[in-house]
Design goal:
By secondary structure, this protein is α+β, with helices and mostly antiparallel strands. The protein has helices spanning 76-80, 166-169, 189-201, 253-258, 270-281, 302-312, 335-344, 358-375, 377-380, 394-406, 413-417, and strands at residues 3-5, 22-24, 37-41, 46-50, 64-68, 83-87, 104-111, 118-121, 125-127, 146-153, 157-161, 172-173, 175-176, 179-180, 184-187, 239-242, 248-250, 263-266, 289-290, 298-299, 423-427, 433-438, 453-455, 458-460, 465-469, 472-479, 484-489, 498-500. It is globular.
Length: 505
């Protein structure tokens, strides 16, 4: 897995301060393969994508770009108007959509409140002041349809730029003033989710079950602790076509037929990892709906992932923690920025930083991921890695991803929980992971005798951290000298401290 520098905020939890964090980055070949050979059976509308081996980010590439949002972005005409990619600071070099390290992606989803029907439309991104290879299809939107838009990016920081008041018109959220999320942004997402959830409650919109995988387990969702990493719920399953001149087009059956030898641009993502790679490996299928740009085709979508996870993911449920690099503000935790991010993913807003605790997130990750990854090794080790520059198989890729997330260059779970990293990897001369071992019972950093707690399905490694009991935020701590677990609940009355003696692991 490729990483780029990103500073880390000091944790609000007690324990060792983490070292500077390196932001999660994948090779451009992640998931769909950013530059691929595309074969099309146009009559059947079937696309076969093969991934070549390739390198990582080129040196000296400007990784901070801006995207000009067209006027009236929530209308059919606004959706059909290409977004324009440009350098945030031209002195750092240009930004080009066909450059896999700089590609930006847009996905719009519309719901008809009357019927509950949901449809997807992927607006196009072009370089500033250039023309599309093929003009985008103008979507036919339902009357009174509610449109929302999400953004993904292969670089570091994507900044939305207004065109004739477009950001206000679209109710767009890019982060805080002077502190963008990074690879993520959205427009009008809360309104879409409100309508979608009302349709679900009225049984107009039926969320499909996650299903059962070949491993006999519930199929993974984007909020499963066996799937998430240091910055969950980012980027999109959107793909574009690009010709030899660097011009782009929507990926549709008609455009594939017109653009011979076109390459495909894709957005590496946690959501796309589930939709495009992991589901297939373990015998699962993502939720798909009609593509308004490509009649007869269905596609997955970012909000579908989140709605399905909200409805179907059993506890513990992964939601963006305050230590996620994309929600830091000036290298400090920010509850406001965390909740703005969560709102775009239909995640529960945190009432305080403890309700979005990075330490609790780490505890659940450490409790869930090693066991599931080992269980699925029989399937994932037989599937090629989505990033050939990082690992040889999907299992090795997932193991390396988990190791980075848990370590000091990720969420620093090893430091926060005082445990050793359960993942060890072996690499070849090019740094590609060729094998990996995941220990399901990682050793403690200290004596190793601290018990673990599970509270209403939430795992607390070492019985340390914060969770919710009876709608109260409760902090757990351990005194190994007297073998006691102390529980303090924030809303408890004076004298409400509880002390228990653990009976085992």
């Amino acid at each position: 897995m490729q990483t780029l520098p990103r500073p880390q905020t000091p944790s609000h939890m007690s324990g060792p301060l983490p070292r500077p964090r390196r932001r999660k980055r994948f090779s451009p070949l992640m998931l769909i393969g950013i530059v691929v050979t595309l074969l099309a059976v146009v009559g059947a509308g079937v696309f076969l994508v093969t991934r070549p081996h390739g390198g990582s980010h080129a040196a000296g590439v400007n990784m901070d770009c801006s995207l000009i949002v067209p006027a009236n972005p929530l209308t059919a005409q606004g959706l059909a108007t290409p977004y324009q990619l440009m350098a945030t600071n031209p002195a750092n070099g240009p930004c080009n959509e066909a450059n896999a390290n700089q590609s930006a992606f847009v996905q719009a989803v519309v719901i008809n409140p009357a019927s509950g029907k949901v449809m997807v439309y992927n607006p196009l991104v072009v370089d500033q002041n250039t023309q599309a290879a093929i003009a985008p299809v103008t979507p036919k939107l339902p009357q009174n349809g509610i449109v929302a838009i999400w953004f993904g990016f292969n670089g570091n920081n994507l900044t939305l730029q207004s065109r004739n008041g477009s950001l206000n018109q679209g109710k767009c959220v890019n982060g805080l003033p002077n502190s963008v999320f990074g690879q993520y942004a959205y427009c009008n997402a809360p309104a879409f989710y409100q309508a979608a959830n009302q349709a679900i409650q009225a049984r107009k919109l039926v969320v499909p079950p996650l299903g059962m995988g070949k491993d006999g387990q519930l199929c993974p969702s984007v909020r499963s602790f066996s799937v998430v990493d240091m910055d969950q719920s980012d980027n999109l399953p959107t793909t574009y076509l690009a010709n030899a001149n660097g011009q782009t087009a929507q990926l549709t059956a008609k455009n594939v037929a017109k653009l011979q030898n076109a390459t495909t641009l894709g957005n590496p993502s946690d959501n796309g990892l589930v939709d495009n790679v992991l589901d297939g490996a373990v015998g699962c299928t993502p939720w798909k709906v009609a593509d308004l740009a490509d009649p007869g085709q269905t596609v997955p979508a970012y909000p579908l992932n989140e709605l399905q996870a909200a409805a179907m993911q059993p506890a513990p449920v992964a939601m963006v923690p305050v230590g996620d690099p994309m929600v830091l503000n000036n290298n400090q935790t920010s509850l406001r920025k965390t909740n703005l991010y969560r709102a775009g993913a239909d995640q529960t807003l945190a009432q305080n930083v403890n309700a979005a605790s990075t330490q609790t997130y780490c505890q659940n990750l450490l409790s869930m991921a090693p066991t599931r990854l080992n269980l699925d090794k029989q399937f994932t080790n037989a599937v090629p890695s989505p990033d050939a520059a990082a690992a040889t198989t999907l299992f090795n890729f997932l193991a390396n991803r988990l190791m980075t997330t848990l370590g000091p260059n990720g969420l620093n779970c090893t430091g926060l929980l005082n445990v050793q990293n359960p993942v060890t990897v072996q690499t070849d001369g090019n740094g590609v992971v060729t094998s990996a071992t995941i220990n399901t019972t990682p050793a403690q950093g200290g004596s190793g005798n601290t018990p673990n707690c599970v509270v209403n399905g939430t795992a607390l490694a070492g019985c340390t951290g914060t969770t919710t009991i009876g709608n109260q935020s409760c902090a757990f701590s351990v005194n190994t000298n007297n073998n006691q677990v102390t529980i303090n609940c924030a809303n408890a009355q004076a004298g409400g401290q509880t002390t228990t003696k653990p009976t085992g692991n």
